[in-house]
Each structure stands twice: as structure tokens, then as C-alpha cells.
Amino acid sequence: MGFRRNPASVDELRALAKQRLAERSAKAATALTLPEAQQLFEELEVRQIELELQNEHLNAARTQLEAALNESSELYDFSPVGSLLLDRCGTITKLNLSGARLLGRERARLIGTKLESYVAAADQALLDGLLEQ
């Protein structure tokens, strides 16, 4: 799973902003009085600070999510209970280390194989029924 990252540099961010501005319809420029210009600059500064604060919060949230994902992956991988995910055809798409140990093969070699090849012949009908559900 990939995460969407912020632009790599300030220059890249500036180029994206200019591109987006060019895509918007251009409004006719009008002359501003000094108080109007000062108010506009103040509003722009406030918006800039708001965006910086939002970016800080988003980066903190991303860091927390990445940590939670890593912890969840570790809990999944090192669980004493075998766990695996199958697609509709019974192909193993994900499994933890205990699941691989139960099936007697390396996890990397099990991904993409059919679970039915590891199920006793007497239980094949049960597996097929479960996959249909």
C-alpha cells in the first residue's frame, strides 16, 4: 500500500499551484486601495498559517497511521494463530507466519497458490462449499 506524499520540494509545490491557477478562469484585475491591499495581504497570511497548521496535523496523522499499520502487521505476522486470506478462487493472497508454518512452506512460496492443494481430499467438498459462500 502506498501513501500519497506531499510534493517533494517547494518548487514542485509552486509549479502545481501555478498550474492549478492557470486552469481556473481568470478574473479581471482591479486596482486596490491601500487598506484593501493590506486586508488582502493579512487574509493571505492567515490562510497560509492555516494551511501550515493543517499540513502539520496531516503529517502527524500520517505518522500515527503508519505506526499503527506497522504494529498491526507485526501483530498479524507474529500471531500464534494461523491466518490467511483467499480470493474467490481459493488462491492464497495473504497469510501470517503461523499460517505458513501450518502449511509447511515459506510464506513467499505460498502466496498465489491454491489452498486446495494443502487440504485433505476428504475436506475438499467442504472447502469448495465455503468458497461458494
How does the SSE layout of this entry go?
Layout lengths: L9 H14 L10 H44 L6 E3 L5 E4 L1 H7 L3 H4 L13 H9 L1
Antiparallel strand pairs: 1-2
Write up what this structure looks like.
This protein is mainly alpha-helical. It is 59% helix and 5% strand. Strands 1-2 form a two-stranded antiparallel sheet. The longest helix is centred in the middle third of the chain and has 44 residues, at 34-77. The two termini are 28 Å apart. The mean pLDDT is 88.
Short description:
This protein is 59% helix and 5% strand. By secondary structure, it is mainly alpha-helical.
Taking the sheet with the most strands, its summary is: 2 strands, antiparallel
Q: Quick check: average pLDDT?
A: 88
Q: Please provide the ordered H/E string of secondary-structure elements.
A: HHEEHHH
What is the straight-line distance between the termini?
Answer: 28 Å
**Total DSSP helices:** 5
| Overall body shape | elongated
Specify Rg, calculated over alpha carbons: 27 Å
Briefly note the structural class of the backbone: mainly alpha
Question: How is the largest sheet built, in terms of strand order?
Answer: 1-2
Q: What percent of residues are in strands?
A: 5-15%
Regions with little confidence, pLDDT below 50 for 5+ residues: none
The amount of helix comes to: 55-70%
Total strand segments? 2
Attribute tags:
133 residues; mainly alpha; two-stranded antiparallel sheet; 2 strands
